[in-house]
Structures are given as structure tokens and as C-alpha cells.
Amino acid sequence: MAQFVCDICGATFEQKSRYERHMLTSHPKRAVSAADIEKALRGIDFPKQRGELINAVSGEDREIRDIIEQLPEREYRDAAEVARAFGELRTHVTAAENQPSRRGGKRAAQEHASAPSAARIASLFAGMTFPASRGALLEHARTEANAAEMRLLEQFGEHTYHSMAEVTHELKSLR
Questions:
Q1: Has residue 22 got a pLDDT over 50?
Q2: Is 62 helix (H, G, I), strand (E, B) or coil?
Q3: H-helix or E-strand containing 6?
Q4: Backbone phi, psi, residue 132, to 5°
Q5: At what angle do helices 62-70 and 79-91 cross, to 10 degrees?
Q6: Is the CB of residue 137 less than 8 Å from the CB of residue 167?
Q7: What is the largest CA-CA distance in the chain?
Q8: N or C, which terminus of the chain has less Cβ within 10 Å?
Q9: Which of 152, 74, 161 is nearest to 120 (CA)?
């Protein structure tokens, strides 16, 4: 009767050393990825210094904590910057400065300042009963919408909207 049984595939072994070799070669442990690090940082408010990130993941996987301890000492604006620093650490190649987390963040901030997103417009109509007229949409959104959002909504056509999909379609036609 075998003393050691692989929990993953059911293979049996008489010797512990053969079981351990089987586990290393047939079922190697998956390496930590940037996605694993971002998942461990979910719910953390940024910006954070490296030391604050270490404390924030103290209860997490020890491997992730060890990786964060190896990151450069600086302030990280979001989990994407931490993942980028992890990539630099792993590959020994410094990423270009115009990465999406910087360029995209600036673009998103500019777009947010100039035009509300479709998701924001949809949130203004939470609980809205359809069909609804343009006037009913404006009245419903008025309590939550800011001035830029109201200006956009006032451009909607004078007809009845039967669903949120029609509101979204109208929004797309205005952009």
C-alpha cells in the first residue's frame, strides 16, 4: 500500500522523495503574476508608499508581500503602477513613462471634466421607470446631475425613451 498520494492526480508513491519530485515536476506551483498583486491590493486607497503597501498586504500571501518589499521605494498612484513596477523588477527592464496608467489616467480625467461617461449618465437614471419623456428624464436626473451632465441631457431629443438602451443610444449620437 502506497504511503503518499497526490491530491491532484491520485498518483501513489512509496517514498516521500518520489512524491515530492512528482509534485515539483508534474504540478509545479504557479508563479505570482501582476494580476495576483493587483488582486491583493484590491480595496486599498491610493496613493501609497511602498511601506504602506507592505502593511496593507500583511495578511495576504507571503510571496506577494515579499515581492512588494522588493519594489522601489516611491509613491504608487494605483495598483497598475505597482503591477508595472513588479514587471520591471521581474524583467529588469524599465517601462516607458507613457504607460496607460499615466497617459490613460490623464485622458480619463480630461474626458470626465469635459463630458460625463455613459456609466455616469446611466447612474443618474437608476430607478427610472420607462417609458419616459425627455422632460421626465431631466426631472429624474436633476437631483444628482451636475451642470455639465444637465447640459448634455438637455440636448436629448423630444421623444419617448422606452429603455435605458435608448438613452444610451441617444447619448452616443450626441458625442
A1: yes
A2: helix
A3: none
A4: -145, 145
A5: 80
A6: yes
A7: 81
A8: N
A9: 152
pLDDT given at position 112: 47
Report pLDDT for 6.
Answer: 92
Place of cell 421607470: 129
Q: Which amino acid is at 93?
A: V
Task: Give the dihedral of Cα atoms 14, 17, 18, 22; nearest 10 deg.
Answer: 130
Q: In whole angstroms, what is the distance from residue 122 CA to residue 159 CA?
A: 18
Residue type, 51: G
Per-residue pLDDT band for 169 (boundaries 50, 70, 90) equals confident
Task: Kindly state the helix (H) or strand (E) to which residue 157 belongs, with its residue range.
Answer: none
CA 173 vs. chain centroid, Å, equals 28
- Candidate from 7-16, 62-71, 93-102 with smallest mean pLDDT: 93-102
Buried b (16+ CB within 10 A) or exposed e, 70-80: ebeeeebebbb
* Distance in angstroms (rounded) separating the CA atoms of residues 82 and 150: 37
User: pLDDT higher for 157 or 104?
Assistant: 157
Classify residue 56 by burial, with Cβ atoms within 10 Å: 0-12, 13-18, 19+.
middle
Global pTM? Answer: 0.44
